[in-house]
Specification:
Blueprint: E1 6-18, E2 22-29, E3 33-39, E4 58-66, E5 69-79, H1 82-85, H2 88-104, H3 112-127, H4 130-136, H5 139-157, H6 164-169, H7 172-175, H8 179-193
Helix pairs in contact: 2-5, 3-5, 5-8
């Protein structure tokens, strides 16, 4: 029996070990939205997929659908976000953003706006020059504002936040003045979502 192979780009949000060597990945994909997909034998040292499906990596992924289960049959890491991985503060921000997407996106449905927001946030965080920020301002403060604004934008695209356009158009420089409002809006949206 032959299966259709779907190719898409994806960002690994989370993973869970299953059985002896399998792993289920939660992936935000460009073409299918957030999906859960299994990769069989990926935890074996000899697995060709092992090093292409790291936490938070951006990969080209080959998928098949078997019943109602996605299976990963091929993957090629396109970006490992090296600067994010080398900076614990940036890695913590990416981890929380991935957790937010994984928690709040339910059902499989492509969302180009959400995909672009998440991917662009990872790109921006990866190229953020920490030396410049340290001279100009505290890195922790800048990353906190970046995370709040990105979280609000994600929740806006998902329909959990009112005044959608206000948050999408807000530049990072102006966001600092609205930090407490952003925090309370995020808390309210998450609480009301009941997710």
């Amino acid at each position: 029996m032959s299966y259709h192979i779907y190719q898409t780009e994806g960002i690994i949000l989370n993973k869970k070990d299953v059985g002896e060597a399998d792993r289920i990945f939660s992936i935000l994909t460009k073409d299918f939205g957030r999906i859960d997909a299994i990769s069989q034998g990926v935890r074996y040292v000899k697995s060709k997929l092992r090093y292409n499906l790291n936490d938070f990596s951006y990969s080209r992924i080959g998928l098949t659908m078997s019943g109602d289960l996605w299976r990963i049959i091929d993957a090629e890491e396109l970006d490992s976000w090296a600067d994010i991985r080398s900076n614990p503060k940036k890695l913590a921000v990416v981890s929380r953003l991935a957790e937010l997407v994984n928690r709040m996106v339910r059902g499989q449905e492509p969302d180009t706006s959400l995909w672009n927001e998440v991917k662009n946030a990872f790109v921006a965080l990866d190229i953020l020059d920490t030396r410049y920020l340290i001279i100009k301002e505290n890195l922790g403060d800048a990353l906190r504002i970046f995370e709040l604004l990105t979280s609000l934008r994600i929740l806006s695209y998902l329909g959990y936040v009112e005044e959608h356009k206000k948050w999408l158009a807000l530049p990072l420089e102006k966001a600092r003045e609205m930090e407490s409002l952003m925090s309370s809006t995020i808390e309210k949206a998450i609480k009301e979502s009941q997710l």
